[in-house]
Write a structure and sequence with these properties.
alpha/beta; Rossmann fold; Arc Repressor Mutant, subunit A; 2 domains; 5-stranded parallel beta sheet; 4-stranded antiparallel beta sheet; 9 helices; elongated
Length: 230
């Protein structure tokens, strides 16, 4: 069955345009005109992706995104008239997968929807991964450290940190460039190399606090790799 897209947008004309272009590409769609309805439809229908406007009645887009991220990894693209760096960073911090600014070309929205669905396909596929003492439950969105004679330690990862860990754990030992990690794990093309460095640094610190130092490993001038250590 084709992917179901939840369009959370309070302007009916904009919602109708997005819906028409998505359905022309074979997607199924459902529309919510306010934040409360968006959350209700998300819980009931479990859409494959949410196109989420920031300025909505009852609950705004930030509140809806935060509520979704408390229990789910559904891909979310923010659609908004706000075009300040602080707004893009806010979307990234809370866990958006991409960011589209109004006025937009609906063809671009469709292209970004397809790109995000491709990028997050592995997250939806689920399955267990293990690199050394680090065990990752993709379906349960849980990462933990298990070592002989020690208590299991769950890692308190953000959504982006979890995605970076999962992406690298699928090919342990391989060196990933910062650009590859941006494309696979971070929203859109606006993410910078230093943003990747910051997320990897925080991930490394949390792994070290759980008793796994040196992961991910920096490869000077190239990027990062997840080495199997004990």
């Amino acid at each position: 069955m084709n992917a179901l897209i939840l369009i959370a947008e309070d302007e009916d004309e904009i919602a109708d345009i997005i819906r028409a272009y998505l359905e022309r590409e074979g997607f199924r769609t459902v529309h919510a005109a306010n934040g409360e309805v968006a959350l209700s439809l998300h819980r009931a229908l479990k859409p494959d992706l949410v196109l989420l406007d920031v300025s909505m009645p009852r609950l705004d887009g930030w509140q809806v995104l935060s509520a979704i991220r408390h229990h789910d990894m559904t891909p979310v693209i923010m659609v908004t008239a706000l075009d300040q760096d602080i707004d893009k960073l806010q979307a990234l911090r809370i866990g958006a997968d991409d960011y589209v600014v109004k006025p937009f070309n609906p063809v671009e929205v469709v292209a970004r929807t397809k790109a995000v669905l491709r990028r997050t396909a592995g997250d939806r596929a689920g399955g267990m991964l293990r690199v050394g003492p680090v065990e990752i439950d993709q379906e349960g969105h849980d990462a933990r450290v298990t070592q002989p004679g020690a208590e299991m330690r769950h890692l308190p990862l953000t959504l982006t940190e979890f995605r970076i860990l999962v992406h690298m754990a699928r090919s342990p030992g391989r060196v990933f460039s910062r650009g590859e990690l941006v494309d696979a794990c971070l929203p859109g093309a606006d993410a910078l190399d230093r943003t990747v460095d910051s997320h990897v640094s925080k991930l490394r610190r949390k792994l070290e606090e759980a008793g796994v130092p040196g992961m991910p490993e920096s490869v000077r001038g190239v990027g990062y790799r997840l080495v199997s250590v004990r």
